[in-house]
Design a protein that fits this description.
The complex is a heterodimer of chains A (250) and B (167).
Chain A lengths: L2 H22 L8 H29 L5 H6 L10 H4 L5 H22 L5 H29 L3 H18 L7 H8 L6 H18 L22 H15 L6
Helix pairs in contact in A: 1-2, 1-8, 2-6, 5-6, 5-7, 5-9, 6-7
Chain B lengths: L9 H12 L12 H4 L2 E7 L2 E6 L8 H15 L5 E5 L12 H9 L2 E2 L24 E5 L7 E6 L5 E5 L3
Parallel strand pairs in B: 2-3, 4-7
Antiparallel strand pairs in B: 1-2, 5-6, 6-7
The chains are: A mainly alpha (250), B alpha/beta (167).
């Protein structure tokens, strides 16, 4: 087994799981009913993606860990999602701005991963790219409405953008694991993805009358298991049932 | 274990299994069979074992587990024990696989079928009201009662309706 292969797929699974878990927090709390359903459905898309990716990661690791073992029985330091996924939901503007930045990234990433030499990963990418296209459509519309809406919505969207911007950088970081995975054709080259991301995000922000923030001090660490203070609480909630009753099923 | 179909020729087995699976319906849109919906991809006989291949509509679709257990139940009820159900992701499911019969059934249930072949601007395209056939309709929400549907409203007859998204 190539260790980088396993760790790369695990990262993708962690990103999907943690963002899905965050989004699911809106279930029952969204501004209105249709939005509640939409956010819950989007969360479900991410969790569904996570299930497949973690299952694949478990196979690659080859020590018998399945999707549940990887999701429920790893501690914070073993999680390798990027930090942007774990940030608290904040207000609706923050949720949508973060989602938009991630959706465009996922759309570009999974588009490229359809050509992965890992056929299972390529199959997951084929499904995910279609869902991400739909997610982008939705979140970009929201960013435009919030940005080019009222004074209040504009300010909140701009504040959200300033806050989240420093975390976007990590999506495009290349370390040894990714470099190895790119070399064996499993992962996608991130440079062209970043260029496309900059272009698409910039275009939507201009339409939304939002100012692209200056490059802030880039936040990083998630890929090494060094997380923000929010991660522990998220895991505590997500894992509590399985930690209390290991292996419990219903 | 003795399989009741062990002695039959494979082509006939496949036909019979397909006929049995024609009774299996999508748990969330029960007017559609899994064949209508295009999630039943293939039935084959491999080394004397029946293999049923299904594909999910959306990766997070919670109905897939139910579909699998409904297939298993239908086969066991017919005395078939030697089978496996496999999930296949590629090629990815598309609403182009929805059968013509399926589209008609959706319409009769008040659900607008996906309009035309898949294209990226499906939500901006024309969606016809399943009640009054007006094309003067508007999107209310990109997601409806299930992951595969969006919520629309007809400006002519004022009825809200589900639209089966192009995917």
């Amino acid at each position: 087994m190539n260790d980088s292969h396993f760790r790369y797929v695990l990262r993708l699974g962690d990103d999907a799981l943690i963002l899905g878990q965050r989004l699911s927090q809106w279930c029952g709390h969204s501004p209105f009913l249709e939005e509640d359903i939409a956010l819950a459905n989007t969360a479900l898309d991410h969790v569904g993606r996570a299930r497949m990716l973690l299952t694949r990661a478990g196979e690659l690791e080859g020590v018998g860990r399945d999707e549940d073992a990887l999701a429920y029985f790893r501690d914070e330091r073993d999680y390798t999602n990027c930090l942007i996924a774990e940030l608290p939901v904040g207000d609706f503007a923050f949720t949508m701005v973060r989602q938009f930045l991630c959706d465009v990234f996922h759309h570009e990433l999974y588009g490229a991963l359809m050509r992965s030499t890992d056929e299972q990963l390529a199959g997951i990418a084929q499904k995910s790219v279609k869902e991400s296209a739909y997610h982008v459509k939705r979140s970009s519309e929201w960013v435009k409405r919030l940005g080019d809406g009222t004074e209040e919505s504009h300010q909140r969207a701009q504040d959200a953008l300033e806050e989240v911007w420093a975390f976007a950088n990590e999506l495009f970081e290349v370390d040894d694991t990714i470099a190895d995975a790119i070399e064996i054709g499993v992962a996608a080259d991130l440079a062209p993805i970043e260029a496309r991301w900059q272009e698409r995000v910039g275009e939507t922000l201009r339409t939304a009358t939002l100012a692209t923030p200056e490059q802030a001090w880039p936040q990083t660490g998630g890929r090494q298991g060094l997380h923000t203070e929010h991660m522990g609480r998220l895991l505590a909630e997500m894992q509590s049932v399985q930690r209390a009753y290991p292996g419990n099923q219903w | 274990m003795v399989s009741v179909i062990a002695d039959l020729e494979p082509a006939r087995v496949v036909r019979e299994v397909r006929a049995l699976l024609n009774e299996v319906r999508d748990p969330e849109i029960p007017i559609l069979t899994i064949a209508d919906l295009g999630i039943l991809r293939d039935v084959a006989v491999v080394d004397g074992e029946i293999v049923v291949i299904i594909t999910p509509t959306y990766v997070g679709c919670p109905a897939m587990n139910t579909v699998s257990s409904d297939i298993a139940q239908a086969l066991k009820a017919a005395g078939i024990e030697d089978f496996s159900i496999r999930e296949q992701l590629s090629p990815a499911w598309t609403t182009d696989w929805l059968s013509d019969a399926g589209r008609e059934k959706l319409k009769s249930e008040g659900i607008a079928p996906p309009s035309g072949p898949r294209d990226r601007r499906s939500l901006r395209g024309t969606v016809t009201c399943p009640q009054c056939a007006s094309t003067d309709t508007e999107l209310v929400s990109e997601f409806g009662s299930t992951a595969c549907k969006a919520l629309y409203r007809c400006r002519n007859c004022l009825e809200p309706f589900d639209y089966f998204k192009c995917h």
